[in-house]
User: Which sequence fits this backbone?
């Protein structure tokens, strides 16, 4: 039987704009890998806010946020059709394995100065999570 975990997050684009102005490359490197930056269609606050929201939604699926799961252990990339895909490594991947999550899918949207992301973690069998009611 499959198990599911859902995460959602909203990031105000103007908050990312302010952080980019104030911290510049230090801000970018805290959240994004070189692979993500190379694949990002535009390196602007709107696109970065969407990917930050996606990472936060994924962290909610994992039940662990920063610093337990570093921002750069989750990459939000695009497949051949442009659909966002999640690539996990390091502690994010270790947490997925512990929770028996095989895949995390994400959906992103932008409107009214907000970036929104929903993440769905799909696993096999019962979740290996001590806080999960069985």
Assistant:
């Amino acid at each position: 039987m499959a198990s599911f975990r859902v995460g959602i997050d909203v990031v105000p684009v103007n908050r990312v704009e302010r952080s980019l102005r104030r911290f510049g490359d230090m801000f970018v490197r805290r959240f994004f890998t070189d692979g993500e930056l190379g694949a990002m269609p535009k390196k602007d606050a709107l696109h970065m806010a969407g990917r930050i929201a996606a990472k936060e939604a994924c962290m909610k699926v994992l039940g662990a946020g920063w610093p337990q799961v570093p921002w750069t252990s989750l990459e939000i990339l695009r497949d051949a059709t442009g659909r966002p895909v999640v690539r996990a490594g390091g502690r994010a991947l270790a947490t997925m394995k512990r929770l028996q999550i095989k895949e995390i899918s994400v959906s992103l949207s932008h409107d009214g100065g907000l970036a929104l992301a929903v993440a769905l973690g799909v696993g096999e069998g019962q979740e290996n999570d001590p806080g999960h009611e069985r």
In short: The two ends are 13 Å apart (CA to CA). The beta strands are 2-12, 74-78, 84-88, 101-111, 114-124. The chain has one domain: 2-124. The chain has a mean pLDDT of 91.
